[in-house]
Amino acid sequence: MTNSAIVPSGRPEILREPIASEAFGIVQKPLSTWERITNVGAVRKFVLLVLLAAAWQIYASQLNNPLLFPTFGSTIHAFVKGFASGELVTKSLTSLSVLVKGYAAGIACAAVLTMVAITTRIGTDLLELLTSMFNPLPAIALLPLALIWFGLGEGSIIFVIIHSVLWAVALNTHSGFLSVSNTLRMVGRNYGLRGLPYVIRILIPAAFPSILTGLKIGWAFAWRTLIAAELVFGVSSGSGGLGWYIYENKNELEIPAVFAGLFTVIVIGLIVENVIFRTLETRTVRKWGMQN
Which of 64, 103, 203, 229 has its CA 20 to 30 A from that of 121? Predict the structure, then answer.
């Protein structure tokens, strides 16, 4: 054998003509009008509401007993009539005024209790003990005591609303704080953050999804407590709210008006959930990439 060098055989040069983009098929297909419409969450929810209203109307028509279950049409008629007369507007504003006061006070109490709990061990023990004691206690069960302590008026309703809001917000906020990663905690410590600045700049943004959930639950609990309290003694500051409106119409057997009062509560709830809370969610947790 000779040690002559092995010369690689030459590879022929291949030239390819560029292929037109149309040959690859459709890379990005534009959405149809139907797909663009159904991708909007508000449209899908509106369709669901229409279907629920249709089911309501069909069931009530089949039942044919307006004293038990009025039709959707008669409820809307009573709803429009109540707003046209101004009665439902006045009742709604009265209820919302009391509700906002109690809700804000409940959030403030929950914030103080949670900040104490997250900064000290004694505070954590106190929060766990108080929530174990009072969270299972229905707010309406405190109504007799509230009547004795604050009298027949706005103060009693605000007291029971605070009780219903406080524990839901405090528990969710504290749970959110505990779920904050150690990396974020160390970042805050390295920047020298302590006490309230540490809570505001590190814990609250990181735990905001849980805090927002607590705010939503607290709002729902506040509505339930308010309507139940008004159904019991209703009149506050010289005028009753939506609960009292429902109770009065029930006594007069104006069942469509009763359903109109309940429908008003539902409408206000939908507005708060889909305008206030949804806007807050979009500008915070969704913008920060913490939620899809």
Answer: 103
